[in-house]
Write a structure and sequence with these properties.
Order of helices and strands: HEEEHHHEHEHEHEHEEEHHHEEHEEEH
Number of domains: 2
Strand content: 15-25%
Protein name: Alanine--glyoxylate aminotransferase 2-like 1
EC number: 2.6.1.-
Family: Belongs to the class-III pyridoxal-phosphate-dependent aminotransferase family.
GO molecular function, one term: pyridoxal phosphate binding
CATH topology of the largest domain: Aspartate Aminotransferase, domain 2
Oligomer: single chain
Number of helices: 13
Shape: globular
Helix content: 25-40%
Largest sheet: 7 strands, mixed
Number of strands: 15
CATH class of the largest domain: Alpha Beta
Structural class: alpha/beta
Keywords: Aminotransferase, Pyridoxal phosphate, Transferase
């Protein structure tokens, strides 16, 4: 049997299992880790100091192999909850009827496009097209291909700690993959809009100025600007939801330079941010391309882009797009059912209401524990900045890690994010309720007293 890797994998990942601690695991867990290492190789990562073996789940709850129940406050892939019966039934019904690709006529994908495109507003509602893929990485890859073809340029600007995918092209614009994951020579970064440490007034102009500098550098080096790609909740940068005036000035600078504005909604879309269905709408934007992924099919692999007609016209004339599994009939059934549930169960409003309640309760906790330096977010996407002292605002990764693992031991699942790995990342399914938020806060309170 291959020996366990005993050093931490190179490259940054917050809240990763440390293989050197494997000897402390119970025998059953250790055997699973050993098999995983031998069979899957060194690139896969595990969460938590003590990995969790989940065997079933429903709604916002999951159970491990020993029958212990966990509160899932992290998983946005199953956006409408684990095992939602309407999504399960839609997948089952379509799979036993027909599973085929988009080179045959099928009304399902057309019905879905007719319902989805109007939700974006602006030009996408009036003249947009839907193109389906399997993953968010593929969606962002397709968006970059279209942007480069449309503009005839290659430069892409992202935020300092962005994550946009794991294909070669998208990993090349994903600084959060770590220092050993090379960025494209045509990639430029702008700083994280850290509203906790920088005054929110004028932050949009500040970010636009940094963007203009990077555009100038791209043009000087003969690359030019193809696209600015951004997750409007800055998920991997540390979860920054305010100010809402942040991205408008950036979009203006990008378009003056002839680039496209790409809104990456893989994490912040489909009601995640509350109030509106899409995160970019909080900023009053009209993107050229919107990319979608994780929550689109509630765990079934379906993703895609919405793109303005004039942006994709020449790309469509010069080359065909086909994806064997992207937009297959079962994937579309999963996406349609998930969208139905979001609408019928009022999950955008639920995200707003429960998210506000959760932030208020966390704020009460922060008022008496200065290690919780900032509570921020929108809807059911919440970031809690862990610092050494409130006055100094110095990031405290060690305490954040201890909190994440302490909550895991109390069977509440969250993670951490940001450059320093010191921001608690709370991103539960959209069916999260006030009683679930209350349980999370109570367990966090207990962990803080023990850390």
């Amino acid at each position: 049997m291959a020996p366990l890797q005993t050093d931490l994998p190179r490259g940054r990942m917050n809240n990763a299992f440390d293989p050197s601690a494997a000897a402390s695991l119970d025998p059953g867990t250790r055997r699973l880790v050993e098999r995983r290492t031998r069979l899957l190789g060194p690139s896969y990562r595990l969460f938590y100091g003590t990995p969790v073996e989940l065997v079933r789940a429903r709604g916002v709850q999951a159970w491990d192999a020993a029958g212990n129940e966990y509160l899932d406050a992290y998983n946005n892939v199953v956006s409408v909850g684990h095992g939602h019966p309407r999504v399960v039934e839609a997948i089952h019904r379509q799979l036993e009827t027909l599973c085929t690709h988009t080179r045959y006529l099928h009304e399902g994908i057309l019905d879905y496009a007719e319902r989805l495109l109007p939700t974006f507003g602006g030009r996408l509602a009036e003249e947009g097209h839907l193109m389906l893929t399997c993953t968010g990485s593929e969606a962002n890859e397709l968006a970059l291909r279209i942007a480069k073809h449309r503009t005839g340029r290659s430069g892409v600007i992202v935020t300092s700690e962005a994550y946009h995918g794991n294909t070669e092209l998208t990993a090349g614009i994903s600084p959060s993959m770590g220092e050993f994951s090379p960025l494209g020579v045509w990639t430029r970064r702008v700083p994280t809009p850290d509203s906790y440490r920088l005054p929110p007034e004028g932050l949009g102009a500040w970010l636009a100025e940094h963007t203009a500098r990077q555009i100038e550098d791209l043009e000087r080096r003969g690359e030019g600007l193809a696209a600015f790609v951004v997750d409007s909740l800055f998920s991997s940068d540390g979860v920054y939801a305010e100010p809402r005036t942040l991205l408008g000035p950036v979009a203006d600078v990008v378009r003056r330079a002839g680039g496209l504005f790409v809104a990456d909604e893989v994490q912040c879309g489909f009601g995640r941010s509350g109030e509106r269905l899409w995160g970019f709408q909080r900023h009053g934007l009209d993107p050229d391309i919107v990319t979608m992924g994780k929550p689109m099919g509630n765990g079934y692999p379906v993703a895609g882009i919405a793109v303005v007609d004039e942006v994709v016209q020449r790309f469509g004339q010069d080359m065909r797009y086909f994806n064997t599994f992207g937009g297959n009939t079962v994937a579309v059934a999963a996406a349609r059912a998930t969208f139905d549930v979001i609408e019928d169960e009022g999950l955008v409003a639920n995200s707003e209401r429960v998210g506000r309640y959760l932030r208020e309760r966390l704020g009460t906790l922060a008022a008496r524990d200065e290690r919780l330096g900032d509570v921020r977010g929108a809807g059911l996407y919440v970031g809690v900045e862990i610092v050494r002292t409130r006055d100094g605002k110095e990031p405290d990764k060690e305490t954040a890690s201890a909190i994440v693992n302490g909550l895991r031991d109390r069977r509440v699942l969250i993670s951490a994010t940001g450059l320093h790995g010191n921001v608690l990342k709370i991103r539960p399914p959209l069916v999260f309720r006030e009683e679930h938020a209350e349980r999370l806060v109570e367990e966090l309170d207990a962990v803080l007293q023990a850390v």
